[in-house]
Amino acid sequence: MADIVAPAYRTIPIIPALKPGAMEGKGPFVANEKINEAIGFPGQLVEDWHDKAIAKMGELLSKYRSLKVFMDACVHCGACSDKCHYFIGTQDPKNMPVARQDLMRSVYRRYFTLPGKLFPKLVGARDLTREVLDEWYNYFNQCSECRRCSVFCPYGIDTAEVTMAAREILDSVGYGQKYSNEIIGKVHKIGNNLGLPGPALIDTLEGLEEDVKDATGIDVKFPIDVKGAEVLLITPSADFFAEPHIDSLIGYAKVFHATGTSWTLSSMSSEAGNFGMFIGNYDQLRAIAMRIRQAALELGVKRIVVGECGHAWRVAYSFWNTLTGVGDGADTNDRFAQMLQKQLDHRYKQPAHICEFTWDMIQDERLTFDKSKNDKHIITFHDSCNVARGSRMGDLPGGQFEIPRNIIKAVANNFVEMAPNTTREQTFCCGGGGGLLTDDLIDLRVKGALPRMEVLQQAVDEHGVNFMATICAICKAQFTKVMPIYGFDRKMVGGVHQLVSNAIQLGPK
Ligand code: SF4
Ligand code: SF4
Q1: Whose CA is nearest to atom 8 of ligand 2?
Q2: Which ligand does the CA of 162 lie closest to?
Q3: How many A from CA of 145 to the centre of ligand 1?
Q4: Is the preceding peptide bond at 508 cis, omega within 30 degrees of 0?
Q5: Which ligand approaches the C-alpha of residue 97 most closely?
Q6: Per residue of the chain (509 residues), what is the pLDDT tens digit?
Q7: Distance CA 219, CA 222 (A)
Q8: How far apart are the first and last CA of the chain?
Q9: Whether the predicted model's global pTM rises above the 0.85 cut
């Protein structure tokens, strides 16, 4: 960490000067045999990796029509090239979204198009050599799958999907990434990304009950494995112990307490995060999501609410229905999905985001706040990529932008926006999403945070902002790590429900 320095802010935020090769060989640690085999992937690069990788690519191209369209549709207009935070921060031209896609597109052309088979050089087609495979590993693990580039592409080409496909191919030949694969193994074995066993979780929750009682004099409960509770809360495991995440968990508990909602956590399914999406692997994505269904069925809950986690909400909102039967579109041939459909209370959104839950309660006047408790903060809001560009909230378009802001305005007096071309659907990634929140990528993470840090600095200079709220565990973890390198206090970042927790009025009205 000592030698990691923040890049200088740009005076005019335009396409930066190119530094070819700047991030070559700077990808994350490769997963070892034990990690890969624990989740069913080949332990190390298989001997016939070339043929297997091409076969896997063919399989994905026939399975995901979008991937084929993305391979064919790009006209190299360049509209996406300066939209990636990793390109802006590293200046490596291969971190331009179009160049990242071309790493795969060149191989696609060689093996799956006639001109590429006949005249490879004329159409920019390349053989899949070991050098190319290494290049894939390096640069497809420098994309946080944030989808910002796709917002600017006239054809809607989604580099995140190309990245997911590349990682899926790499895993299939035993060339996976350590951080994501290790975490997936922990979820299968223990139930959460952190490997926090049930007894430790129970201890932590008991400690929290005592802390909240000391601070407020009120018995706010943090229930776990309670059969027959109305709500099952699925939240990122960072909420159980890390700062500032835990302050949001306290906020959720206070909201449930104040509204008289019976709720529970699950020790078996104590993780909202789903790194199966990051590695583009459907089987992993489903297996992780199934733990949630199992917990919901065993506990007999009526509602499933998801805590502050960006990619978890994307998985829950966009994929849980067909993966597990939570939400509309459950597989009619899946007996357990149908059981869950019958069990859940469909007067409510299934699943619901904790912000939707809290905002509904605010609108129903079931919560009261003392906004002055947040007066020490001048607050801004960082939209998290997967919430902004991969999901929705509420009943209106843009609900995922408005609802968290509405909550902040309901619990605090001082709220300002950051520059409009860096918020809502145009938000910049924190720099640590998509399975890149690992210390072996700290250089990339610091550089990737540059665009958000520049705009935050502007908000600090113009409005005196001293608190940036967000609803993503990865954003919180990434910002607390990189913000001090940019000269900010790490305590400047926190959750929306941390602000709710500060202002909520508990006890008799
Ligand atoms: S990190 Fe985001 S902006 Fe950059 S290439 Fe990947 S999806 Fe596009
Ligand atoms: S904006 Fe779309 S079409 Fe243009 S270069 Fe980027 S991916 Fe290709």
Answers
A1: 74
A2: 1
A3: 5
A4: no
A5: 1
A6: 657 889 999 877 778 889 999 999 999 999 999 999 999 999 999 999 999 999 999 999 999 999 999 999 999 999 999 999 999 999 999 999 999 999 999 999 999 999 999 999 999 999 999 999 999 999 999 999 999 999 999 999 999 999 999 999 999 999 999 999 999 999 998 888 777 888 999 999 999 999 999 999 999 999 999 999 999 999 999 999 889 999 999 999 999 999 999 999 999 898 999 999 999 999 999 999 999 999 999 999 999 999 999 999 999 999 999 888 887 777 788 889 899 999 999 999 999 999 999 999 999 999 999 999 999 999 999 999 999 999 999 999 999 999 999 999 999 999 999 999 999 999 999 999 999 999 999 999 999 999 999 999 999 999 999 999 999 999 999 999 999 999 999 999 999 999 999 999 997 66
A7: 10
A8: 49
A9: yes
Burial class (CB in 10 A: 0-12, 13-18, 19+), 90: buried
Q: Which ligand 1 atom minimizes the distance to the CA of 433? A: 1
Longest dimension (CA), the chain: 78
* Ligand 2 center from residue 73 Cα (angstroms): 8
- Tell me how far CA of residue 14 lies from CA of 101, 145, 445, in angstroms: 22, 22, 20
Residue carrying the six token digits 């902002």: 465
Count of CB atoms situated within 10 Å of the CB of 372: 11
Q: Compute the distance from residue 98 Cα to the ligand 2 centre, in Å.
A: 6
- Omega of the bond prior to 451 within 30 degrees of 0, cis? no
Q: Give the residue from 230, 231, 232, 210 showing the smallest Cα distance to 221.
A: 210
Probe ligand 1: pick from 74, 147, 436, max atoms within 8 Å of CB? 147
Closest ligand to C-alpha of residue 436 is: 1
Count CB-CB contacts under 10 A for residue 123: 15
Phi and psi at residue 26, to the nearest 5°: -105, 25
Indicate which atom in ligand 2 lies nearest the CA of residue 75: 3
Candidates 66, 72, 80: which one to mutate for ligand 2, based on the most atoms within 8 Å of Cβ? 80
Q: Are 105 and 71 in contact (CB under 8 A)?
A: yes
Cβ(436) – ligand 2 distance below 6 Å? no
What is the full DSSP assignment across 126-169?
A: ----HHHHHHHHHHHTS-----HHHHH-TT---HHHHHHHHHHH
Compute how many other C-beta atoms are within 10 angstroms of the C-beta atom of residue 458. Answer: 15
Query: Ligand 2 centroid to 162 CA: how many Å?
Result: 13
3-state secondary structure 342-385: HHCCCCCCCCEEHHHHHHHHHHCCCCCECHHHHCCCCEEECCCH
Ligand 2 pocket: which of 153, 162, 163 to mutate (most atoms within 8 A of CB): 153
CA torsion, points 119, 159, 36, 295, in degrees to nearest 10?
-140
Residue that the structure tokens 């926190």 belong to: 494
